[in-house]
Amino acid sequence: MTQSIRPRRSLLFMPGANARALEKARELPADGLIFDLEDAVAPEAKELARAAVAATLRHGGYGKRELVLRVNALDTEWGAPDLAAAAAMPLDAVLLPKVESAERVHETVTQLDRAGAPGNLAIWCMIETPRGVLAAAEIAAASPRLAALVMGTSDLSKDLRVRDTPDRLPLLTSLQLLLLAARAHGLAALDGVHLGLADDAGFAAACAQGRAFGFDGKTLIHPRQIDPANAAFAPGADEVAQARKIIAAHEAALAAGKGIVVVGGRLVENLHVEAAQRTLALAEAIEERS
Fold it and tell me: What average pLDDT does range 233-257 have in this prediction?
């Protein structure tokens, strides 16, 4: 039986200090919103942004969108207050920046528990440094609260001193290590942002590549990126039709006492049926959202 699947095709970063953007986000077709208290907020505006996000979330109106708060790092003056505030907000998850060890996850869990956070408040971790990439497996195993790993390609590219190439070849190892860690521990894996707002072709290519690699969706920095991401990370009509064909053929084979069957010239086994079931479950979850 395929587990319930939550679409995470598009996760839009929202500056916590931008009241107009927070209001507009209620109407955007993103699968999730990441209210940002870290990179998108100047130091002098951190506390105001935290209060603004809390007030916005209390007001509600975000429908079925997944709501995530990116807090400041625990080793900053804003990290602990951010977590204490997050514990009382109607959120799905807290996103930790620049995670480099399981210990950071443990510290976060302790603080959330002390603040009375509900048990279903998940933790997401941004992997955006060389140390973070190398520790991805231990981070992914750190806590039952952990639900997703998020690739931070911008900071990672800076630290690695790589060139920004359309094929992202310099980041290939890091992307795959994050995916391996996420899948080994049953976590969602989200691809990094694309900074070229006017680069529609480049964004489409990055989305196609991310999906081919196995990412569940992409983090975004502008609303115009939502629709292309939603399309890229959703099963197409042909995929859904093929999934149904595989499942039906396999069921017919089992009824005839066979364990395998050929569909369209390709051998189909249980593993292909599981993949097909996931495709249908994702398509149904997306349809339910829309």
Answer: 93
